[in-house]
Structure formats: structure tokens, C-alpha cells
NB-ARC domain-containing protein (Leptolyngbya boryana NIES-2135), 700 residues
Amino acid sequence: MSPETPVDFFISYNHHDRGFAEWIAWILEAENYRVVIQAWDFGAGGNFVLDMQKAASEAKRTIAVLSKHSLESGYVQAEWAAAFAKDPMGMERSLIPIRVGECTPQGLWAQIVYVDLVGVEEAEAEERVVQAAKRAVTEERGKPSEKPEYPRSQIESKPVYPPSIPENLPRLSDVFVGRAEDLEKLHEQVKTGKPTAISAIAGMGGIGKTELAAHYASQQRDLGGYPGGVLWLSARTDLSKQIIEFARGQLQLNIPEDVEPERKVQDIWKQWQQKETLIVLDDVQDYGAIRRFLPPQRSYFKVLLTTRSRFGSPVQNYEIKVLSEAASLELLRSLVGDGRIDQDLDTAKRVCEWLGYLPLGLELVGRYLARKQGTSIAKLWERLQAQRLAAKALLEAESGMTAPWGVVAAFELSWQELNEDAQRLAMLLSLFALAEIPWSLVQACLPDADEEELEDLRDQQLVNLSLLNFERDGMYQIHQLLREFFAVKRSTMPEEEAMKRSFCAVMSEIALQMPSDWTLSSIEQFSDAMPHLKEATTTLEPWLVDDDILSPATRLGQFYEGQAAFAEAEEWYLHCRSISTQRLGESHPDVATSLNNLAALYYSQGRYEEAEPLYVQALELSRTLLGESHPDVARSLNNLAELYGSQGRYEEAEPLYMRSLAISERALGVSHPTTMTIRQNYSTCLKSMVSAFNSSTSIL
């Protein structure tokens, strides 16, 4: 439809009900109605409030997606009030509520008849939505075309919570965002009938495994998806006791007293009503340890695990990821409702990025800000950078959260499951940059380790406990906060200094293997190592030995220069000059080399005025430190001569070339590649001089 087509319906909803809102919009557009919905029609960069006002005013009718979330939303209430004000008597049916979740409208909204989709199968729900739209547009009565069935034949077979579903779900967090797709995919997987373990990108603590499981169980409870009951078990405490208490308290089963607990559990499973039942075991460490408590393999029992590990068959692993930036900001806004997030959005984004978009970290800092109304996002950022994982905002959970601990405590649970060698490997990995880590670099740092044993530590310990993530062939990565955690652990070990020096030595050796002239092949070969080379020459620069101070930063400059990324190349050449001067002093051959490299970059860009003083300084430094007859002096003379020649300053260039060639022939020999290059440059200069002289003569 063209943009000029009148809008039939504006769909107003809370973000928790986006799935229902989009489903309704799709159904209506399939019936050729024109619909406006935030999820499809409001683009990034627009004014959300103005877009909403425009849509509500231009649409003929507003569909209100009715749920407990929308009834609590100020924005949604305002949109509905605007629609109601246009038609307070309901004569034109300008406001059509569609109830999608258990809720009880109060006050004004209790007087408006709604379309009820709660507990209704999809086909029937679609029919109700279409008929409601049709009657609103055509003002038809709702009389059916056929005689209704006798009511006794329409008894609902599907129970809907609350009265008939036994459950013992834990208290849910009052914020839950960014997981709608996970809920849908998880439901599909659980319904296959096999046990399903939830793990994270690496099953790491704090990613929201328990939260996702609890919200899934709650959602299905409310939808009547498991009429046989929803049983929540903590895998770290006595399972048989929990199952028996549930059977007695919720199911009123008769359980004999004179048998062992495991026999009681098996008897409970036999007595369980044969209706679909969800059993959740939270925080499973060892599948073998809980297996004997699981129900028999019946199609109506669905088992869902949360775990930091990855289990093999028959468990299917469902991996959840960290939140997106948008979902992370939405989570912070839901906790900090006074506008502080959007008042300093750039800093809020930096906070989210530093937390690695980890739900636990985001919720902790969000609740911290909610408690401290006078604390700005900028002040929070300052405290996080100063105190890192020890920041008060990250230390302790509070009432209303599903997680009972802070970030460090959550990570500590997984750390304690590692053996000593795996812990040492984790601490080594924390020295690498926050980027994908080539496993070949890790092996280079541990040359005496058995290759297969090292892989076992990686796969069976770190990857299995989701402390390290496999990205692609030969490449691994750790989450940002886990990297911080491992670094804290490393700082307590006596071998930390030696570990840092070893890492830097390996990175320097890698740098020496890199070419000075880069090709597409060499760029591809070494590009994965570059972030870690940067880490060695910046964060870990104090642990580079003097002989290695130059090579990492120089190779980085050459790497970017070879790709014509001149700004990045300049940054690393300047860094190279800075650290070599600070470490070695103003009078050192490596300082002269760094000056030559920076000057050569400027020369290649035609920045001759910036290049000349650097070339002159490098030449004088080489003469002073190495003597007039050293090959480096010959190279410096050649460089300066080339600069003069490029500017047409041939009379200044010629004596420099002559001196450079003489030194090189004596020091390196007449056939040395450096000597031959200088000779060729000198010859080119002489030809240019003759050409310039002839041109000036002909003009005269």
C-alpha cells in the first residue's frame, strides 16, 4: 500500500507483548487492512513520542494489546486514552482492546468489551481478531452465520493457570528483556521430548540461564502449556526431598514412609497424572548425579536443565548469548526510570560494552543506579573504571533478583571446578587482548606443554564450563568480565611477572616473523595476531625487554601502512618513538630507527616538511652513536637524499647520495642489495638533474 493510504489500525502495546502485537498486525494486513505498529514502522533516529502521537491521531482505530504489562505502562495508557477521547461512547469503535495475557482491567478500561485470546488456540484467535476488525470497520453485528453448538460440547479441555496447575516456581525478577526469541526457540526444543540443558555462550555465570528457565516455566504455566504441573528443583540441594515435598504438598499423593527416598521418587513418577509436565532442575553440575532422580521416559514429562557445563546425549544443549546493545540499554531503562540513561546515552553504551552485555552485570548496575538517584551514569563509569570487578555496584545481588550473588561470586563457582593446570591456563589467557585468540599463540606461550594435554585442559575444563568460547577453526575468546576475573586471580600468583615476560617475548618473536613489506597473503596470515601484539606493546610494555621494545610497534605500523591505513600507521610509529625514547633515552640506535620509520611514512604521503626534520635528526643520531662509516648512516643519508630529490632539490641530494654510496660500498660491498639500491637511487637523481637542467636551458 502507498503511504497515502488511510491507516485502519494503530497497534498499541508494551514491549513485553511485542510477539502478540506483530502477530495481530500480520493477520490484519493479510486481510488488506493498513496497520501501523512500532516494531515495523518506527525507524532508528526518529522521535518515539512524536511517532506514537502521529500514528494514534492518523489511524481510524487503535488496537490495545491488553496484558498486565500494558496496564502498568504509562506510555500505553496515554495512547489508549487518546483513542478513547476520540470516541468516548464507543459508537465508532475507535478503541478495540485485545486481551493476550491474564489481567483484570480496572476503572475506565473495565467498561470496554475486549477480544479475549487467553487460552485460545491460534486458529480460533485469528478468527476472533479478523471478526473484531471486520465488525469495527463495517459496524456489522456479531451474529454467526450458523447455529451455535449446544454449550456442553464446548467445554474447554485445556486448563489455564491459576487454579488447576500445581507449581512451585521461584520468584521472578521484575525485569526481563531481550529474550523473546530465546523463549520461542527453547519451547520448540523442550517439546521434542528430550532433556534440554540451557547453557550460555560459554555457559558462564550471570548470563541468565536460571532467569530464562524461570520465565519460560512461568509463561507456559500461564498459558496452560503443562497441565500436569511445573516442578522447580534446585540441583545443588537434596532432590529427593524436594520432589517428595512437592508431591505431598501440591499433588496430595500418598507416599509410603518405609522405603528409601529414591524408591519414593520412583513411586511418585508412577502416580503422576499423565498430562504434560515440566520439570526444571536448576544449576546442574553433573548430569550423572541427577540422572537417577529424573522421571521415566514418558512423552508427557519434559525435563529442562540449567547448567554451566555442556552435556552429551541425551541432553540437547541450548546456548543463550549475551544481550544486544539495544536490549542492554532497555534493561537499564527498565531499572532506572528517571531518564538518566538517555541523558548520557554514550556513557551508558560504554558501561554496557565494558560489562560485555552480561545480564547479571547490567541488572546489578541498574539497580545500583536506581538506589542512588543522585549518581550519574558518568560517575558510575568512573567508579567501574577505578575499581573494576571490586566496584560496589557489581558485588551483591538484592531483593527482587533471580540471581543470589554478584558477578565475582557467580564466576567463583565455576573457578572452583577447575583443576590447578586449567586455572593457570585461564590466567595466561587473560594476558591476551579482548579479541579472538589464535590457539597457536597459546601453544607458543607454553612450548613445553604436551599438545594433546593442553587441548584437554582447554576443551574438557574451560570450554566445557563455558569459561572459554570456541569461535571458529583454531580461534577462541573469553568474555570481558571473565578476562577481568582471571586477571585478578593471576595477580595473586607469584609467577605473574614471569608469565607476563614470557608472553611479551612470544609476541616479540611473532613480530620478528612478520614481513616489513606486507602483501595480501601476509596480512591474512598475521591479522589475527595483531590485537595481541597491540596488548604486548601497550598494556604489557613494561615487561618487554629492551631488545624487543621496537619490534611489536614497528610491525604494527608497517601492517597498517601496507594497507594504506596511514592514520593507524602514524599512531603506531609515534607510539614506537615514544616508548623507545622513554625506555632507552634520546640517544639510542632504536630511537633513530623509529624516527626513520615515521619520516618514511610522512614522505610516502607527500608530507615533506614533517619528514625532513625527522630524517635529519635520525641521521645525526646515527652518526653520533654508530660512527660515520656505519651502514645505518648510509641508509639515513639515502633517505634524506630521496626526500630532497622528490622536492627537486638535486644539488642538496647529490652529495648525500655520493656519501651514502661510498659508505655502503665499503661497509657492505659493491654487490650488496642495499648498495645496489642506493646506486640506483643516485643514478635516478643524476638523470633528473640533467633533465631539469635541459628543461631550464630550453626555456631560456
